[in-house]
Specification:
By secondary structure, the chain is mainly alpha-helical. Helices cover 69% and strands 0% of the residues.
Length: 446
């Protein structure tokens, strides 16, 4: 029987692919480093959890200790970072976005992602939680995993069709997938925040790498959601009013948070605090640490750390947060970033958003508060990051809230739209600040 030309061409392509050892070696390298990136984030998660546990034991034994310990940690972290690892500053997401910029030469990408910065980020962010600072580990996980994946380029065969851009994108997304145990959220993060040009030829391989990194977290921590299962009553029109109010409030507060954070991190304001930060960054960080300690003591310890415990308690209905928790956590997270301590804002943003949802539930007397808490998480995260699809998918996977899919999506879209009226996209603006660290171009001779 004669095979037509189309079938022959297909069979030849399959035969060539199977016989090309360099293609398969490249795939093996990518998959191997994806597993390593996921395990690195798992190790980072373990480090941060134990570090904050030690801080809580210190605070429990000596209630006044944060007044000394937290400023000391903040100042020391900033000193070490500025002296040895300036590329580990900020959350980590802007660095990966900067490394993906078309204007960054391959030799310059080590300014933003490398194994050295991976180790530094892990150590400094863990130290921050050891000091009780209000920061998250998800943003740092993006830079940590991207640094591991980017190192894979040294082991790829010459004819490998995997680009450095693809490795960075997969690594950054793998960080989100492994940190939150949300593979779909990691994929959407890659599409919405990191992707700048298509990787059509290897898209399947890179998606597999992202999912595999997420599975590393599952293999260690089990296939459970980040916040557990929430009870959702039969949705009705009664959710429309409180849900719309919450979406608008999340958009306004989240947009304000992003704007204040960007202005503070940029450091080009003429106020005395910005001038002090530029002149004496270590002393400024110590002062910020003292303010954070006071806020933490006023809130009975609830603003220390990522905010995970407060969010979980709100969803479980175990106890009500402190009366001013939303405001105090807002201030604590902003001041931590302003101090210059490396750390993310994903987890604190979820905590603030959940608290806003709880406040709206009490204000409107909505019966099922956990529903509004979950919507608040998605809305505030979308407002801060202006990445609504990533926000709603992450929260959907984190709370096992598939019954709320449409509500989460609508809240995230509305909140992100409102936020855009107040602030430019936060991570893109911060990535532009990172690009200013590039050495000036050498003018052509003659």
């Amino acid at each position: 029987m004669k095979i037509d030309d189309g079938s022959a061409t297909l069979l030849d392509a399959i035969r060539d692919d199977l016989n090309d050892w360099q293609v398969w070696a490249g795939r093996a390298v990518v998959i191997g480093f994806a597993a390593l990136a996921g395990l690195t984030v798992v190790a980072f998660t373990w480090m941060t959890e134990h570090a904050f546990g030690w801080f809580e034991r210190l605070h429990g034994a000596y209630g006044w200790a944060p007044l000394i310990w937290t400023p000391l940690c903040a100042a020391s972290i900033v000193w070490v970072m500025r002296r040895y690892a300036i590329g580990a500053a900020s959350s980590g997401i802007p660095q990966v976005m900067a490394a993906l910029d078309a204007g960054v030469a391959p030799a310059q990408r080590s300014l933003y992602v490398s194994l050295k910065l991976t180790v530094a980020k892990m150590a400094l962010a863990t130290w921050g939680l050891l000091g009780g600072l209000s920061l998250g580990r998800e943003g740092p996980s993006v830079q940590i995993a991207a640094g591991v994946m980017h190192h894979a380029r040294h082991y790829l065969p010459k004819r490998s069709q995997v680009s450095e851009h693809g490795l960075l994108m997969a690594g950054g997304a793998a960080g989100i997938a492994a940190a939150f145990n949300t593979p779909l959220g990691g994929i959407m993060f890659a599409i919405e925040e990191l992707s700048r040009k298509p990787e059509q030829r290897n898209s399947g391989l890179l998606l597999a790498a992202i999912v595999l990194s997420g599975l590393m977290a599952v293999s260690v921590y089990g296939n459970s959601t980040y916040f557990g299962r929430i009870h959702v009553d039969q949705l009705s029109l009664s959710l429309l009013g409180p849900g719309l109010l919450l979406a608008v409030v999340c958009g306004l507060v989240g947009g304000l948070f992003a704007r204040v954070l960007l202005i503070s991190v940029r450091g080009d304001s003429a106020d005395r605090f910005s001038r002090w930060r530029q002149r004496s960054p270590v002393a400024f960080a110590a002062a910020c640490g003292l303010v954070l300690a006071v806020i933490g003591l006023v809130s009975h310890g609830s603003t220390f750390g990522t905010g995970y415990a407060a969010s979980r308690a709100m969803l479980d209905g175990q106890h009500e947060p402190e009366p001013l928790y939303t405001l105090l956590k807002f201030l604590a997270t902003w001041i931590t970033a302003w101090a210059g301590v490396p750390g993310g804002i994903f987890a604190p943003a979820l905590s603030i958003g959940g608290s806003l949802g709880n406040d709206i539930a009490q204000l409107t007397h909505y019966a099922n508060a956990p529903t509004l808490i979950a919507l608040g998480m998605a809305g505030f995260l979308a407002a801060v990051t202006q990445a609504p699809l990533t926000a709603f998918i992450i929260v959907m996977e984190m709370v096992d809230g598939h019954a709320l899919v449409l509500s989460l999506m609508a809240t995230a879209m509305v909140a992100s739209g409102v936020s855009r009226l107040l602030c430019v996209p936060l991570y893109q603006a911060m990535a532009q600040l990172q690009l200013q660290r590039l050495p000036p171009a050498t003018p052509p001779a003659g």
